[in-house]
Amino acid sequence: MEIFDILASAAFWAAAIRIASPLIFATMGELICERAGVLNLGIEGIMVAGAFAGWIAVWAGLPLWGGVAVAFAAGAAFGLLHGVLSVPFGLSQHVVGIGITLLATSLTFYTYRVVLPEVSSPPKIVAFAPWPVPGLSQIPLLGPALFTQTPLTYLAFGLVGLVSLVLYRTPLGLALRAAGEAPAAVAAQGLSVTGLRLGAVVVGSGLMAVGGAFLTLSAFDSFFFDMVNGRGWIAIALVVFGAWRPGKAMLGAILFAAFDALQIRLQQTALGALVPYQVFLMLPYALSILALVAMSRRAEVPAALMVPFNKGER
Amino acid sequence: MRLEPIAAPSLARRILPPALAILGAFVVAAVLARLAGGAPFAVFSGIVTGAVGSKFAALETLNRATPLIFTGLAVAVAFRAKLWNIGAEAQLYAGALVTAVLGTGALPLPAPLLLPLICAVAMLAGAALLFGPAVLKTRLGVDEVVTTLLLNFIFLLFVSYLLEGPLKDPMGMGWPKSARLVPEARLPRIVEGLRLHWGFVLALIAAALVWVINARTTLGFEMRAVGANREAARFAGIPVTAVTLKTALLSGGLAGLAGFSEVSGLKGALTLDLSPGYGYSGIVVAMLALLHPLGVVAAALFVAAIFVGADAMSRAQGVPTYLADIMLAAALLFMVLAILLTKFRVVRD
Amino acid sequence: MAQEAGAQPVVLRLSEISKSFGALKALDGVSLSLARGEVLALLGENGAGKTTLMNVLFGQYTADRGSVEVMGRALPPGAPRAALAAGVGMVHQHFTLAGNLSVWENIVLGTQSLWRGRIGARAARARIADLAARFHLAVDPEAKVGRLSVGERQRVEILKALYRDARILILDEPTAVLTPQESDALFATLREAVGQGLSVVFISHKLHEVMAIADRVVVLRHGRMVAERAAAETSAPELAALMVGGALPESEIAPRPAGPALLRLSQVSTRPEGRAPGLREVTLSLHAGQITGLAGVSGNGQRALSDLVSGLVAPSLGGFEIGGVPVSRWSPRAAIARGIGRIPEDRHRTGTIADFDLTENAVLETYARDFARHGWLDWRAARAHAEALIRGYDVRCPGPGTRIRLLSGGNMQKLILGRVLETGPRIILANQPVRGLDIGAVTYVHNRLAAARDGGAAVLLISEDLDEVMKLSDVIHVISEGRLSPPFARGAVSVATLGEWMAGAHFAPAAAGKTGGAHHAA
């Protein structure tokens, strides 16, 4: 059957890993925010801003990693705005997040039009090239699939390990986990809940933006207006699906990306002739909703998620 | 220095947030206009004249405000009950879809029967689209923000499929568009010759009705109670789940009306670009209005003016129209920040 | 103040501390000192300022005026970090623990620089084990705090302070959540601590404990220090009078014989919720004209029972009758319809809607039945009703249009009381009805409940304050891990016996183990 042929091919899995990479950045970023107690609905806009910022920086002459850094900075800036409004000021995280998404998206489109007023199609840059890992990329099947990816993909997977390490084995991670569960405990131990949450949102938003930049610097080589296309919202679903654990969330992202890669390929098959292409495009979003429903018994929700902490309030 | 809660904020303090929001939006716009090489004053006067400077412009603003009033009401009703309906966009298209399906000749009824029928079914369609996420929320605790958002993408793809397939205009030029509505299914113009249609009046009536529901009915009381403190409402015997679902029906229905109004009153057919994001702008409208139904009308007019004015200004001066979106996003954020000023006073120790 | 030359050095000195919250002056020029190895009791009724004073010391609040000196050095205000570094450790009344982390993680939290790479779990765990042994604080370092009992969590809180080398231990109402036997164990720990050179400040409103453990007593009233005594030179009645500012009103609420049973539970079980136990084969009768008191340490099923009677939860097993009629469909609305008046445990979270005004809160339960026709609300009638409640129940407020969050706790509770009692309920659930109220409001509420009882209502009183239960109830049950003791008539049972039942003794041995609550086959 055609599906099995697809599933057995290295090209399919390579595509799945590639599609998963921006999701992994975005999911790790959102996970850090939520573990500290802040829901960051600005993720979609921040990814758009990151995609644009990284790309335009490279187009203006910076090296690729410089573009990644610029993207991170752009995300961190929006994260700082979100953090200041929702943490010390304690404003509704739902509304602030949506405002940030609207602001980041509109600022991106505006800047694009200002910087490139006359273009009919956006200029291309030289994106990251796949870098085969010496030795490992020679393994049959696994080699082309896993070890012939761009450096940003390797970074994404390394990030999962780093986030896990920090979260579970360092004092900082301990403090973050406590801040999202019982900020009163954190304050009573002399730490600053505001500082921890702000830091988490800033760093998390930077990572989200790098996820956006992956699209323009690694997956493709140009910026399109509809590029992010809901990946931010999908990342939020993946955080829930992964029960707020980095490793599980990564697996969720890969599973999701595999379905996405599958639907692209199925469109070329006999099935694709029968079923309208829109159905295939719907699958990722429908899958995300299913993932949320499946994980609906959220016993592992950080207890203080979305609850502002007011020091010394009577 | 610390923050101290205010007992009863004065009227001046309560007006402050929308005022500050608008002011802040203009300041941001001025900075960005300058960066784009435009002169801020020229940009602003361009927006103002573009919005209300001529009869054509003013009517255009009212037309643009109509769907915003509906989606603004939809969001306000939902947010009041702490139901985070971000899916007004899809609910709008649901209403629009129904209008296109029923209004292109399928039902041979005269206008006085056909219009109310389509209107009612459009409301039901919008309500149905929010009902699913609402049930998931009440039954399984699934966050409705993400489900309604994802549903936006899914439903728009569905509409795209229909417009390229079963609903495609047989006389169309190739791009996806439904057949034109029959005259009986069209909302008439308010005055012959002017572009303003009865959808605007319908929107005003809807705002008044929502206001009455909120202030004087048991349903309004229950919605407000559930939004203010769900636990206390449940303890007091208010059927929280039923109220949440009723809220969803009302909210989705209002957004569906937006779609009906646009297809039947303005465009006459369903296209994929029917809504330039009215569902999302409705969120800004609702917040600027502090979730008050009558405030929604004022806020919708303001937002519409900004959009219409920015379109005209952009054609004349070259500053990108996205300035309008930035202004509204900034207004939203300033607004939320300024609400703090109504609740707290800075006190020097 | 008496401080003889040659006595132990002063480790803590608070001077002229004043603190206001808006118009409310919580502390007014309070000064006290603590010597090394001393146990100082801070005594006062609810609202006297004891917790506020200690929160100023610990840096959670900043005083408007006054200074704090620890070991002779001035303590910078408003910084828990500085207080911790100076050797002040506080065990709060509401525990500050993260349920998703283990015991040792909670203890280690904040003790290391955030820039450090590793936590060093093994060394930490070893040190915790050593401290636990030295101070008789038995607890499993690997256990998730979310699963611990209240008594165990308090031990974690104390270990937190000891781990940080606290020289001054502040405990805020520590025995409020313990059985009498657990309290004794706590006192043993405190004596050990004092023996090792620590000093203790012990906040309480329970006189007999203060007399048992303290060397010196400071009495606060309305934010002022009104007296200071050596424990050996005073007595409980004198302290009580100082606390209240006069002779304690001896309100004797005489016991009454039982009327017919208005509510009956027979072998009722409910599902546990999270870590809170469900009811296990509970048999209970509430009789007209009687106050049935429920004694027990918090977290032993009181929530399950009150949720059941309130209508929030239905029994999964067993028989449930009201007025002799079995209950089929159950909800808060059904409970109200069947004549149950409910005073909830938490007036802020469950009892009122903070942003609604007094009128809206007054009709929160009855709007549909009494103030609406065909879905249309009559706000004029609702307002009149609210005004009647305000007058009848002495609710101090600017008017029925005031937002209820501006009222004091006592006035809020009086409004809730009025809302409940004015419907003439046959059964009244009073869940922690006087928690956090000043003595005037306490007496008012108690008198109203007694009056309702005299009028023929059956009152179920749930309280963590054993004194309150013993003073008010005609009949007392003890609840422990979801099981109910048989009824005891007031006067026929001693505190010690009740304490034993509260600690779980005398119940038939459970089939399942203690952890996770019992699950019943459907």
Q: Report the average pLDDT across residues of chain C.
A: 87
Largest sheet of chain B: 2 strands, antiparallel
First-last Cα distance of chain B: 6 Å
**Spans where pLDDT lies below 50 across 5 or more residues of chain C:** 1-6, 511-522
Sequence of secondary-structure elements of chain B:
EHHHHHHHHHHHHHE
The biggest sheet of chain C, with number of strands, parallel, antiparallel or mixed sense and barrel status, is: 7 strands, mixed
Q: Quickly count the helices of chain B.
A: 13
Considering DSSP H and I runs of 4 or more, what fraction of the residues of chain B is helical? over 70%
Most extensive interface, chain pair and sizes: A-B, 43 and 44 residues
Radius of gyration of chain C: 24 Å
Number of domains of chain C: 3
Approximately what portion of the residues of chain B adopt beta-strand conformation? under 5%
Strand content of chain C: 15-25%
- Given the structure, what is the number of helices of chain C? 18
Low-confidence stretches of chain B: none
The gross shape of chain C turns out to be globular
- CATH architecture name of the largest domain in chain C: 3-Layer(aba) Sandwich
Rg calculated over all Cα atoms of chain B: 21 Å
* Order of strands across the main sheet of chain B: 1-2
State the helicity of chain C in percent bands.
25-40%
Q: Structural class of the secondary structure composition of chain B? A: mainly alpha
Structure, described:
The complex is a heterotrimer of chains A (314), B (349) and C (522). With 314 residues, chain A is mainly alpha-helical. Helices cover 69% and strands 0% of the residues of chain A. With 349 residues, chain B is mainly alpha-helical. Chain B has a domain at 68-292. Chain B is 72% helix and 2% strand. In chain B, strands 1-2 form a two-stranded antiparallel sheet. In chain B, α7 (199-216) crosses α8. Chain C is of the alpha/beta class. Chains in contact: A-B, A-C, B-C. At the B-C interface, α8 and α9 of B face α10, α11 and β18 of C. Chain A: It is found in: Cell membrane. Chain A: Its main location: membrane. Chain A: The chain crosses the membrane at residues 6-26, 38-58, 64-87, 94-112, 151-168, 198-220, 232-259, 271-295.
